[in-house]
Design goal:
Elements (H helix, E strand, L loop, with lengths): L1 H21 L1 H5 L6 E6 L12 E3 L4 E8 L2 E12 L4 H4 E7 L7 E4 H4 L10 E2 L3 E4 L4 E4 L3 E3 L2 E8 L5 E11 L9 E9 L8 E7 L2 E11 L11 E5 L7 E2 L3 H4 L9 E2 L3 E6 L7 E7 L5 E3 L2 E6 L2 E7 L6 E8 L3 E10 L12 H4 L8 H7 L16
Parallel strand pairs: 6-13
Antiparallel strand pairs: 1-12, 2-12, 3-11, 4-9, 4-10, 4-12, 5-6, 5-11, 7-8, 8-9, 13-25, 14-22, 15-20, 15-21, 15-25, 16-17, 16-22, 18-19, 19-20, 23-24
């Protein structure tokens, strides 16, 4: 009888835990260890509305340093300024404990699921963006044992105003089985010929929880037949293999813009040469665990149009190599803070060349002159 009761209690506890995990509001009705804290760009001055920091071109600011143990629960940023591509020129870095290498190092926009220096609204579980891509919210849990330091660098040509808030919990002790949050940007352009694009490659123990993937096409043709592949703990052949780029992001038969809790396509320009897109997938419901190492890659192959030398006309060939400009952010948790990082690409390599027409300035320069008014004859009954 005692064993039956013990088993029943364990089942009840497991069920309660599962329900709480499924419903975040269930946790609010229970006592919480720790103290809620906030660091922000605001000043406690009733006579001032100066709630932002100026970030000059080339300047790096330490937004805040938090003493642990603790856990960041929410990041919020709003950016104002003349730099149209601040989502790629602003760089976010987060350091855990005494590490000299950032565990988070990524352009701000890519971290919030908008690549190619563009902006987009996002409505997902860990990341939410509103105000036409200008109000950025992150809800990834980020525990730390000793210290957390958050930095931002402006690598753009204009001064920017940065509003920010960091909501975190000051904890009485280091959380059990704590893992450190990581997010790392990488890109490849020009691409390595006839090779897959590597989204993530690292060593250690942890689990992979998300991908933001962006591309700028090199051909006027469909680009999405590339398969995702996960090599776990030194595998020679991947144990996880996908069926296509749009399939990995849980879409099908091409892409269209959408955003939901776990997957989304935040940017999708019409198919054509130089068209840009960004998609995200969070592996929150089924993290990819690894104990020694992990490599995540995606094929750089799909439909490619080439010119027939006999006719001079483009022909579409199935499943050929494509030299597209790919970039990404990998999200994962690991037992230790980062110890080494890839070389971070300079800002001039993160933004492709483009032609911008400043329509606001053009409107100011438009002049009107007098002239004869044209009339159109209309028959009336």
């Amino acid at each position: 009888m005692r064993h039956v009761l013990t088993h029943a209690v364990l089942v009840a506890m497991m069920l309660t835990t599962a329900l709480a995990a499924a419903d975040p509001l269930a946790e609010v009705a229970r006592s919480v260890e720790g103290k809620g804290r906030r660091a922000s760009s605001g000043l406690f001055d009733p006579e001032s509305n100066l709630d932002y920091h100026h970030l000059q071109p080339g300047e790096t600011q330490t937004l805040t340093t938090l003493d642990g143990p603790g856990e960041i629960r929410h990041l919020w940023f709003v950016i104002a300024g003349q730099d149209r591509r601040w989502s790629r020129t602003l760089v976010l870095r987060i350091y855990w404990d005494d590490a000299e290498t950032p565990s988070v190092e990524t352009p701000l926009g890519d971290f919030f699921a908008a690549g190619n220096g563009m902006r987009a609204n996002v409505d997902s579980l860990p990341v939410q963006v509103t105000s036409y891509g200008r109000a950025l919210n992150c809800y990834w849990h980020m525990p730390f044992a000793k210290k957390a330091r958050i930095e931002m660098t402006n690598e753009g040509p204009h001064r920017l105003c940065v509003y920010w808030q960091v909501d975190w919990m000051e904890l009485p002790k280091k959380p059990d089985k704590m893992l450190y949050f990581h997010a790392r940007y990488r890109q490849e352009f020009p691409p390595k010929p006839f090779s897959p694009y590597v989204i993530f490659e690292g060593e250690g123990e942890g689990h992979y929880v998300g991908t933001v993937f962006s591309s700028q096409c090199s051909y006027d043709s469909w680009f999405g037949e590339s398969d995702d592949r996960f090599f776990i703990d030194g595998e020679r052949e991947p144990s996880i293999v996908g069926t296509g780029c749009e399939d990995y992001f849980n879409d099908g038969w091409s892409f269209r813009e959408f955003t939901n809790a776990n997957t989304g396509v935040t940017i999708k320009e019409p198919n054509g040469e130089d068209c840009r897109f960004t998609a995200y997938r969070w592996h929150v419901r089924a993290p990819i665990t690894f104990s020694k190492s992990l490599k995540v890659e995606i094929e750089r192959r799909s439909f490619a149009k080439v010119v027939d030398p006999a006719t001079g006309k483009p022909e579409q060939h199935d499943f050929k190599y494509r030299p597209d400009f790919c970039s990404s952010v990998a999200f994962w948790y690991q037992t230790e803070p980062a110890t080494r990082a890839l070389p971070f690409p300079p800002v001039e390599e993160r933004i492709n060349k483009e032609i911008l027409l400043d329509t606001a300035d053009m409107v100011d320069q438009i002049k009107t002159t007098g002239g004869a008014r044209a009339y159109q004859a209309v028959n009336r009954v």
